[in-house]
Amino acid sequence: AVIIGKQGVLEGTKQKIINSYEVREYGLKAIELDPNNPIGYRKRANMKWYLKNYSGAIDDFTKAIEIDPDNVYSFERRADFKRESGDPKGAIVDYDKALSIDPNYTSSIGGRGTAKSYLKDMDGEFTDCSYFSITETRSKKTDLTASCQEHKERG
User: Fold this and answer.
1) At residue 55, what are phi and psi to the nearest 5 degrees?
2) DSSP for 83-148, written as a single string
3) How far apart are CA 20 and CA 37, in angstroms?
4) Running DSSP on this structure, what letter comes out for residue 34?
């Protein structure tokens, strides 16, 4: 569907709000029914992030990790949230943990490269992004390939 004009944007925003409340309710219900199931915490964390409650989102992923410490997704998402909320060093620790669980989880390599760029570690960024670009076939590849190209051009 194509949305044109302010009314379309407003309708799209309303739908996003409705969707976020549905996810919130699902997460809360899942936690209520089984507080030892990490899925509810992961769902609620994603909703909190969408609502810009960054510390709450990180806290929920921390809880999910406490319950299931071998879930690569939880470490990667918490790393993404740490990186985007201004803690690239903490993000790198989580990306490394995700990769220790599953060395083939290439999106964590790309995310770690981006976190390294936030710390001005351009060699580290380039190494991770280059590896990611070679091995990754999902849609994120394009964004990180562009980042690697920018690094190469900066010298």
Assistant:
1) -65, -35
2) HHTT-HHHHHHHHHHHHHH-TT-HHHHHHHHHHHHHTT-HHHHHHHHHHHHHH--STHHHHHHHHH
3) 20
4) -
Cα–Cα dist 34/18, whole Å = 24
- 96's CB contacts (< 8 A; 6+ apart) are 112
Within 8 A by CB and 6+ apart from 85, the residues are: 54, 55, 58
> CA dist 9 to 3, 6, 15, 20, Å?
7, 5, 10, 16
Query: Residue 64 half-sphere exposure, CB side, CA atoms within 13 Å?
Result: 26
* pLDDT value at residue 23: 58
pTM of the model: 0.70
Tokens of 150: 């920018």
In which band, very low, low, confident or very high, does the pLDDT at 151 lie, cut at 50, 70 and 90?
A: very low
Residue with tokens 């944007």: 9
